[in-house]
Write a structure and sequence with these properties.
The chain is of the alpha+beta class. It has helices at residues 2-13, 18-29, 35-59, 61-68, 107-141, 200-204, 208-226, and strands at residues 78-88, 92-102, 152-163, 167-177, 181-191, 196-197, 248-250, 256-260, 273-277. α5 (107-141) links the parallel β2 (92-102) and β3. The radius of gyration is 29 Å and the shape is flat.
Length: 278
């Protein structure tokens, strides 16, 4: 407890400036504090703590060493909104929330992911601008009333699926909407211990395809049995097994979730289909 006693001595030796101390003393005598008095008290306390902290760092090597091992928030793996903007005119409504990753433990992979995300966002926004203008032009040329034209909408955003000291899993969503809606998803699953992208074999073992296929087939049958409105394509149009580039993410339970796009294995009204592999 030697360090604690030393800290107490240093703290007691820290004196507030005379003028500041008068304000503090006066404030405590009043039953009601004014906002500006409270702010001055807070500033004085913060200053004292700051001086105490610096003093401990300078006089106690053990304390300084322990502080140096405390993780800094900015050093933790993170996904954050890098760009956010919206644009509207007579041809399109566009909203973009572009993510960026940092501190994933692999500078090269981090650069690669951020570059890919940027390229996807730029390509999507350029495509929608071109297509939106062409669609409106064609609509008017075929006799449509410009005032009745429904602008094309594009929404780019992201969602963090899981984030802890071991795994960072998130998805980039790009949704186009006009007569119908279509969403393209790109999933990123990163092992923060190795700094590498997670594969299905990493999570499910060398027989990952067999494990995933059997689980998905079983869950499809269970869903159909539980709800007659749960309809999936049959035979050649139906589920034929996961693909080599199968989309998936890691959920908060640490399990793989296999994802199928709209219309991929079921009618459009069923939307995207997800299957957790336990």
């Amino acid at each position: 407890m030697k360090e604690l006693e030393e800290a107490k001595k240093i703290y007691k030796s820290v004196k507030s400036p005379p003028k500041m101390q008068k304000i503090i003393d006066s404030s405590f005598k009043n039953a009601k504090f004014k906002k500006w008095n409270l702010k001055k008290i807070t500033l004085s306390t913060a200053a004292s703590i700051c001086i105490l902290f610096v003093a401990l760092l300078n006089c106690n090597s053990a304390f300084a060493k322990s502080v140096s091992t405390i993780p800094v928030i900015s050093d933790l793996a993170n996904v954050f909104t890098f760009k956010q903007y919206s644009e509207e005119d007579s041809t399109k409504h566009m909203r973009v929330e572009q993510p960026k990753v940092e501190n994933i433990g692999n500078a090269e992979l981090e650069k690669q992911i951020n570059k890919e995300i940027n390229q996807k966002v730029e390509a999507a926004t350029k495509e929608v601008q071109k297509e939106a203008e062409e669609n409106k032009k064609a609509y008017i040329q075929t006799g449509g009333n410009p005032n009745d034209y429904v602008p094309m909408a594009i929404d780019v955003n992201y969602e963090i699926k899981s984030k802890n000291e071991k795994v960072l899993s998130f998805v980039l969503n790009t949704t186009w909407t006009q007569a119908n809606a279509f969403t393209e998803q790109t999933f990123y699953n990163i092992d923060l211990k190795t700094g590498k992208e997670i594969t299905l074999s990493d999570k499910l073992g060398k027989d990952y395809k067999k494990v995933a296929d059997e689980s998905v087939k079983k869950q499809i049958e269970e869903r159909k049995a539980q709800d007659k409105d749960q309809i999936f394509f049959e035979d050649d149009a139906g589920f034929q097994g996961i693909t080599e580039n199968q989309k998936f993410y890691i959920n908060n339970n640490g399990n793989v979730v296999i994802v199928f796009a709209k219309y991929e294995i079921a009618p459009g009204y069923m939307g995207m289909q997800e299957f957790e592999i336990k």
